Amino acid sequence: MQGFNSSAHFPKTSPLYFNGTSPNPKLALKFPQNYRLCRSSNRNLPMLKLLSSTAATSCRTHALTATTFRTAAEPAPFFKALSQLTGLTTRSGRTVGYRRFFCSDSAGKGDEEGTVVEAEAKSESDGSDTKSSSAIVSTNPRLEDYLSVLALPLPHRPLFPGFYMPIYVKDPKLLAALQESRKRQAPYAGAFLLKDDSLTDASTDTEKSVSDLKGKELFNRLHEVGTLAQISSIQGDQVILIGHRRLRITEMVSEDPLTVKVDHLKDKPYDKDDDVIKATSFEVISTLRDVLKTSSLWRDHVQTYTQHIGDFSFPRLADFGAAISGANKLQCQQVLEELDVYKRLKLTLELVKKEMEISKIQESIAKAIEEKISGEQRRYLLNEQLKAIKKELGLETDDKTALSAKFRERIEQYKDKCPRHVLQVIEEELTKLQLLEASSSEFNVTRNYLDWLTALPWGNYSDENFDVIRAQKILDEDHYGLNDVKERILEFIAVGKLRGISQGKIICLSGPPGVGKTSIGRSIARALNRKFFRFSVGGLADVAEIKGHRRTYIGAMPGKMVQCLKNVGTANPLVLIDEIDKLGRGHAGDPASALLELLDPEQNANFLDHYLDVPIDLSKVLFVCTANVVENIPNPLLDRMEVIAIAGYITDEKMHIARDYLEKTTREACGIKPEQVEVTDAALLALIENYCREAGVRNLQKQIEKIYRKIALQLVRQGVISESAVAGEVDAKSEETSSDEETDESAADSGVKHEGSAKGAVRVMLSFLESVGVDLNTVAVQMPETEAAKTVKRSDDAETAETVERLDNEEAKTVESLDAEAARTVERVLVDGSNLSDYVGKPVFHAERIYDQTPIGVVMGLAWTAMGGSTLYIETTQVEQGEGKGALHVTGQLGDVMKESAQIAHTVARAILLEKEPDNPFFANSKLHLHVPAGATPKDGPSAGCTMITSMLSLAMKKPVCEDLAMTGEVTLTGKVLPIGGVR
Ligand SMILES: Nc1ncnc2c1ncn2[C@@H]1O[C@H](COP(=O)(O)OP(=O)(O)OP(=O)(O)O)[C@@H](O)[C@H]1O
Hints:
The protein folds into 6 domains: about 1-140 and about 265-360, no CATH class; about 145-265, Archaeosine Trna-guanine Transglycosylase, Chain: A, domain 4 (Roll); about 400-455; about 470-650, Rossmann fold; about 705-825, no CATH class; about 860-965, Ribosomal Protein S5, domain 2 (2-Layer Sandwich), CATH 3.30.230.10. Helix 9 runs antiparallel to helix 10. The protein is α/β, with parallel strands linked by helices. Mean pLDDT is about 75; it is low at about 1-140, about 735-760 and about 770-795. The strands form 7 sheets. It has a 5-stranded mixed beta barrel. A 5-stranded parallel beta sheet has the order 12-13-16-11-17, with helices on both faces. Strand 20 and strand 21 form a beta hairpin. It binds adenosine-5'-triphosphate. Adenosine-5'-triphosphate binds near residues 479, 482, 517, 697 and 698.
């Protein structure tokens, strides 16, 4: 124990070796299990080679115990390098402390054979005074005696000498063999990297599949070069291995568990003073140092290494670099297989350089993210500071205060009219708002709620107009006819005038499309001076659309009525509920029932919207609904409505509407002046009869728009042509004018000449005055000048003014005449029956009159169609005659009802004939064929009954029916004609 600091205490821990030296069993007899002695060959200082107590599973190092330090005065080169590498400084003197280096001399050994025995032997041969006990003699085999070892497959990375590695052994036989060998004091095995299976994906080559490999198969999959591994501990199926020296498999000994014969490999001899090797190793160290600066992971590795490595050498450095690099297993295996130290160092250098690049990228990524985060934090902080400063200076109140102030200001205007309970709710919500955190979701809910609550026009009504005359004027202005509707509105106004207030009512306008239901609604609002709001409920299936969502839902909204009130800003608007007969019915409740609450005058004074949650008064709202088919309106709703039917327009009404309303508005919309166009009555009539036969006027309006658009284009085109013609003429005229100007210039010249003669006369006069002795110095100077100037001026001014005036007049005349000419060229566009098809295309409908004279057995009937109605013929002919052949055959795509009604007609006609001509056996002996053209159009209904009877009787009695007579009506079996509906 000479030279050994016996005062040091070492914890007894499991022996995990990082130094690559084998634990000497001899020593184990003398020293505590977890340390052993070596010495620095330089100064013969005993060196305690600490055996790491690092727990294999946690990779934590606990072995921080007393070791001796080398003095700083004699630092070995690698010691210095690695001292820098770890960033730790050594303390000079033989201080007992944390071990941070290893003996550089041992590097010269170039192999991990530096066992204690050898170290002792070496120290003895060096003649050092530190003597180990040579009495300790090993009875166990030395490392090189292990020539046949169990082969352990390593799936992920090779094991480098000096490193430990935990592996999991799933194969129970192999595990038992390992345990057995441990017991036999020969805890060594061979660890070999597994080759990738060419058939399976490397990533699926899991531990399990590794354990499935056995015998020869496993043998073939092992890399030849591996590591002699000490089995440090076995816990369950976890085996901790410590790498010692390189091995090469020579042959297989036994299959299960796989045992192989091995050669122990030694590094090729090298010159440790070789400059290239030194330089390469320095480069490896310096690169490692660079990586260390950025990678904390590496720092741990290096620290562990420097703490526990015993023999520093070039080969060891190469192994170390490769082992801690993130290189893939094949690259690591390459390093393991390389026995040439210089080449191994080079390979390692490549790997650590790559690592360096990766760590640089890692650093830049980390930096970028850090910068981003810190930038956002900074901005947030600054914003908060800014807010605080502004608040302190009184420049800005915080969000909450500003919001509360806004809401208070809004409600201030309705304070007197707003119901008390609403004011109370608003106040409560405002208080709540102040207490809530601005970033919380509840804050947003409250803010939105207050926004809606304060935006409604509480008690704000528009001034109603009770002037019946004015209202009538407005209604007539916008719509022709519709007297029922107009009358009802005037009644409503009259009642309102007498009572002083108007009550909300529900009017339902029903009728075919395009008869003006929607547009009259707008007109009524105008006549009553109410705000207008329209919403269509066609296809509406969600009750929430009417009653609103509950506030608890994300994105909750109030219903349509609340939206309407906010929109119009008054509490008594006219609300047009369009297409009420097309209300949808979905899973989300029954919208018809929700509308009931909205429309019912009994209930809507306290209409409760789910979102708003405070009752609102809708009793002053005038509801107007529109529907195409009244029968489709849910009964409870229909009950509460006052239905006004608009039947559709007859041709005469359509003519008026087209002439006085549609044409006017379309003309204005197209920017055409009334005098520029004329659409004749014949054209309008043709348009109505041959193009637009529907009950409403929407299609008629479209056709008129079509005509006017075409006229507009025609006018613009003509305008362009005549403009260019005018421009041509103006050019010609201006040329003429310029030649006139030239003439005037010559006239001006003659003026000058004239002026010249005037000046001559003055001169004669002056010489005369001189001759009579008058001192005319001044006079003479002034006189002729003044005179001359005056003369010249007069002549100049007069002439020029005259010329200009003349020219102006001429130009004005030219422009005027050209304008007139242009106006003449842009002619009035005339649309009449003959050119109507140029504007609207070929007629859609043709005259239905097929016969000028209806033959026997043919009668004209009336039919109801979606367009309103039309006429059709019913024809009957005799097919066969003979005793008892009486029968009826019907064609023309007739529905069941119509077929039945044909049978009834046959029976009734027979009865009538029997009554009128008892001797006529026509029906009994004739097979009849009844047809209703056009065969492509499906027809149904009972109302053709009387027409069919007439047609059959006409045939039976051989009498034609009057050609301008049409009929319709269902007939009973006894011959009674039932009343019809829907005909105006
Ligand atoms: N009596 C009329 N006088 C003047 N214009 C009319 C008249 N009737 C309808 N119109 C015009 O016809 C056009 C179509 O009318 P509107 O859209 O109101 O029809 P509607 O009955 O509401 O149809 P739908 O049932 O399809 O909604 C409007 O431009 C309207 O001005």
